[in-house]
């Protein structure tokens, strides 16, 4: 059975599993990010969702926001062994429901190239004329 839990104060085991998921996705370099960053990410998010199957975290996603006018969904990922089972969809649906329940109406997502077919059935639309941009600190 798939369930979604919203984390605020994760256990060491939950943090370790989330680190595994980020690294498995190739989003984090080995040795660069780890448990302390995960705790800060979870605590700093408007909502941090953990999808579980039989008590094991198999997917995550989060909403970040100003808690007043808008929010963004990001870091949606599912363990490759559990993909194509509706887990990512469930994560996004639960996050957007919670954010809308807080009175926020505008929810954006900056998605990886080719992921529009995942997000459009969930109510997201491409923003014509918009260009996602990034600035990183070297």
Automatic annotation (TrEMBL):
The keyword Transferase applies. SUPFAM superfamilies: Acyl-CoA N-acyltransferases (Nat). Keywords: Acyltransferase, Transferase. One of its GO terms (molecular function) is N-acetyltransferase activity. Residues 2-138 form the N-acetyltransferase domain. PROSITE patterns: GNAT (PS51186). GO terms for cellular component: cytoplasm. This is Acetyltransferase (GNAT) domain-containing protein. It comes from Desulfatibacillum alkenivorans DSM 16219. The lineage of its organism: Bacteria, Pseudomonadati, Thermodesulfobacteriota, Desulfobacteria, Desulfobacterales.
